[in-house]
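Lecture 7 notes: from sequence to structure.

We start with a single chain of 266 residues. Read the sequence below before looking at the structure.
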Amino acid sequence: MTRGPKKHLKRLNAPSHWLLDKLGGIYATRPRAGPHKLLECLPLALIVKNRLKYAITGREVNMVLKQRFLKVDGRVRTDPKYPAGFMDVITIEKTGDKFRILYDTKGRFILHKIKEDEVKTKLCKVKKIAYGAKRRPYLSTHDGRTIGYPDPNLKKHDTVVVDTETGKVKEWVRFKPGCLVMCVGGANVGRVGEVIKRERHPGSFDIVHIKDAADSKFATRLENIFCIGASVYKPLVSLPKDKGVKLSTVEDREKKLDTIMKQQRA
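Now the structure, written as tokens:
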């Protein structure tokens, strides 16, 4: 085995939710170490080139980013390999684009358009609460943030609303039955629903039972849950058009056929 970190990523080994074509080359952009894991992020090069279509080649991507047009969570990012991930806010002032990275019900990243009032806030899941030097309390979030002196009532799996300009917590939401959650892992990625109950399994994985807007029930591990609101009627962020409701195979097929028919008529 060779020594040192891997610096390349073959296209066939890239995460499937990047939606890269098989014959588009040998290599893909390997994300740098950053706030999100390799399998749970989208490099800025793919956002500019494949999603927004502002560039055709990697050289053009560099030219766009080096002009300091693109911001992630209010900070200018010029590295094409920077890993943007779930709940990150991407803004391009030159074009007026404002997006939040979310999942669709098929587990793929989507750039969800947001309004001006949502740009300066971001939801972060509490991953750990601990004490540092001199018993200084702090919490760690899903995107690598460390926030000192948090609210003493906060617990693991809660969600904090962070002001991206100051980095401070504006409000927070308790994870409990009745809250609104989105699945960010497992077989139900992208589905949104209300928590019905939580099954505790000491020594194993806790299971959370969820009901979506179509009254379909499903279950997943507690680690796969991201709380996005205190109740179904109070989401903290705007949701995609389908509201996190997963269609059945038959419903999905009928929807695709209807779309094809409308295109042919037009």
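The chain has three helices and 17 strands. Keep this in mind for problem set 3.
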